[in-house]
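Hello forum,

I keep getting stuck at the same step: I have a sequence, I want structure tokens, and every attempt I make locally crashes halfway through. Rather than fight my setup again tonight, could one of you with a working pipeline run this one for me? It's a single chain of 428 residues.
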Amino acid sequence: MKLRSLLLLLLVLAAVGALAWGAIRVVRATTAATALELPTTKVKQGRVTLTVAARGELQGGNSEMLTAPMVGGTDMAITSLREPGELVNPGDIVVQFDTTEQEFKLKEAEADLDEAQQLVIKAESDSLATAEESQYAMLNAQSEVKLAELEVRKNPLIAAITARQNEILLEAARNRQRQSTQDFANKKTTSTAGIAIQKAQENKAKVLADLARKNIENMTLKAKTGGYVNVQPNTNQNMMYWGMQLPSFQLGDTARAGMAVAQIPDLKSWEVSANVGELDRGHLSVGQKVTIRVVALAGREFTGKVKNIGGTTGPPWDRRFECRISLDQAAAELRPGMTSNMVITVETLDNVLWIPSQALFESDGRTFVCARGPNGFVPHDVTLVRRSDSQAVLTGIKEGETVAMSNPDQQLKTGAAPSSGAMKALSK
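Reply #2:
Ran it on my machine without issues. Output:
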């Protein structure tokens, strides 16, 4: 009897366990079914406008760039600098560099110039004195020759010895005359050369003084056109701020010769400079229409065109290229540096099939959508025609078919939310 009761108890427990297991399976099935309630969309047909969105910075189109002057190899300290965004008129001082060194060089050159000018005066005076002395010696020698010639005329009337002495004296007087004439010419040439050397020193000192004055003048950067000052990044800080946005020039910073310190944009010509991802490069071309919205001017919309497309730069995981867009019209409220959101119209396709981009998947070389069938969602191969961030144009499916916005298989594997299973496809 005890054994029979024990067996009966075991049977009851087994039945209860079977019922509990069945209940757990039912709950799990219900949960799975709930998890497979995916967001869906329908394949649509019509006009699709493909766009590329980007964010950039407003700049002047024909900007005036103010650069540090070429005054030597040393850095120049900034002693005066306009505030960013400050309005300046033509002729206003925007940047002033420290001119102490150039002023010292100017005083030194002016002192050398004064000394050289005095040396030129002295050389000219010495030349005149030497010329007078040489000319006197030459005239004296000529007089001696004439007197000796007069004495020689007496030779027929006097003794032979005296006559011979007169001839010797005449020859000596003529030699002194030739020597004095040669000395006069030599001293004149030497004096002229001495004056030329002193004048060369004078010209050198004058050039150095003029150069110092020009450098002092160039170290004051003035605006040639009116506009708002856009202070440039200080690239001298590239080591300290590696990988970060460089700070702008400030009062007291130093700049090397040729460095851009400030910019004055043309208020009648505006551009937007944006860094666009490399994958969108093939979609853009010069002349495409652009819609621009300036963040600081809510509700205002501007139109423009792609002006040029620059080279690709950046690390392998974030390759980007510069795209410059010119605005069709200007506005008084615009300021350099304003953040702008742009939508570039890439292409307009008529009467095409399209779905949201997140409803298109790629795996193992296949491009497919998850179409709803009698037994749930199943992969359906399609051909991608064009793709943007928001829309994908395709063929190989019918209008009106229902497709999932996330991959059901991926959702079952990860147990994640429906939207987290979306896979992106690369556009052709």
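The domain at 39-62+268-428 is CATH 2.40.30.170 (Elongation Factor Tu (Ef-tu); domain 3). If your local run keeps crashing, start a new thread with the error log.
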